[in-house]
Write a structure and sequence with these properties.
This protein is α/β, with parallel strands linked by helices. Helix 3 packs across helix 5 and helix 9 crosses helix 10. Strand 5, helix 16 and strand 6 form a beta-alpha-beta unit. A six-stranded mixed beta sheet has the order 1-6-5-2-4-3, sandwiched between helices. The protein is elongated. About 19% of the residues have low confidence. Helix content is 52%, strand content 7%.
Length: 364
């Protein structure tokens, strides 16, 4: 497929294209940054959480950040760079890990985020010229932010202690740099404090086998590890569901008492798949990612792993119990853009099997 066909598939919410090209690319990028930042060992920095965050960002911008890529750069390379920004942004808010982000990595993020694509070095030089800074202040900003020197090297050159340098640098950011970015680019400048990194951490290049490791492989591995529990449950469930109505594969109309249940995201950006169908035809509201709206019911599926979906499924089941006059047609939530498998999501609905007004997809 061409890059344009892939992007079009993203916009249409094609689950096969999403799984192969979006999650496959994100998985390879995650491997690289996990090796550097130990992402998998940090709470809320697992692969699914970061990949979903990236997907939501792209949907919010109608996938324009991908179409605006450099003409000579492959889509996969551009997406890998974009995933880096998501990683760095997440690490900034992970307080214990501020010190693991290098200036080089942080500044690179400005080149790949569409809204922040500025010539960073040029901006810092403009600040030094327009704010009439003294020579010491200019040296601090230029050496740390433009030339890439370490704080201890700059402190030694200026004949001051690293602590004094850190304090002065912080004041410069607060008084000059942050207001400049806020005024000229309508954005906050949230640079980490000075970091001393004595050793460079190398990012290993993924070998051919690792580069080919796709999202499907990861999910299949997890399924095989829990084969007995998952598939035992499915077998038992099929025996009890033989005579029960199932949700059609495609729904284009509803009876007055029927509700379209779809997978959403917490921000309520209904940009593709069943979510877009819910928004266009069944009353889903942009900006509302949970609960009943019109003849649709949103269950968030893009905020992390399966365990983060269970509370919203339980909330839905309770709602359905309290509204027996309505019939809820549950689509294969989480199995499209969100990237999960039926075998991962269907167990979340085990409490719904005996509820007459909840209709589940075939095999659930």
């Amino acid at each position: 497929m061409t890059d344009e066909q892939i992007i079009d598939g993203f916009r249409r919410g094609d689950s096969d294209i999403f799984r192969k090209y979006f999650y496959g690319c994100c998985q390879r990028a995650y491997y690289i940054y996990d090796a550097r930042y130990s992402l998998s060992k940090k709470q809320n920095l697992d692969f699914m959480s970061l990949a979903h965050q990236y997907a939501i960002y792209l949907m919010e911008h109608n996938w324009k950040p991908l179409t605006d890529r450099s003409p000579n750069m492959a889509l996969s390379t551009w997406m890998t760079n974009g995933f880096r920004y998501i990683v760095l942004d997440a690490l900034k808010w992970y307080k214990r890990e501020f010190g693991t982000i290098t200036y080089e990595d942080y500044l690179r993020s400005f080149d790949i985020h569409q809204d922040l694509r500025v010539n960073f070095n040029k901006v810092i030089r403009e600040i030094c010229e327009t704010e009439h800074l003294d020579s010491t202040s200019k040296t601090i900003l230029l050496m740390l932010l433009v030339d890439g020197y370490k704080s201890k090297e700059v402190a030694a050159l200026l004949g001051i202690t690293p602590s004094a340098l850190s304090q002065r640098y912080g004041k410069l950011l607060e008084k000059y740099v942050a207001p400049y970015f806020k005024h000229n680019f309508d954005m906050d400048f949230d640079m980490p404090q000075i970091m001393v990194l004595d050793e460079e951490v190398l990012i290993p290049e993924p070998c051919e086998t690792q580069a080919a490791f796709a999202f499907d492989d990861m999910v299949q591995f997890c399924i095989e590890k829990s084969n007995d529990s998952i598939f035992g449950h499915i077998k038992q469930k099929k025996e009890t569901m033989k005579e029960k109505r199932t949700t059609p594969n495609y729904i284009d109309r509803l009876a007055p008492n029927e509700i379209f249940v779809f997978g959403s995201n917490l921000r309520g950006m209904h940009g593709g798949g069943a979510a877009r169908q819910a928004y266009l035809h069944f009353g889903a509201v942009m900006g509302e990612g949970v609960g009943l709206h019109g003849q649709s019911y949103a269950i968030p599926t893009m905020q992390g792993g399966v365990e983060t979906i269970q509370p919203y499924v339980d909330q839905f089941i309770e709602y359905a119990k309290n509204h027996p006059e309505l019939t809820f047609l549950v689509t294969r939530i989480g199995c499209g853009i969100a990237g999960f498998r039926d075998s991962e999501i269907s167990p979340l609905f085990r409490e719904a099997h005996d509820i007459d007004n909840i209709i589940l997809p075939k095999g659930w």
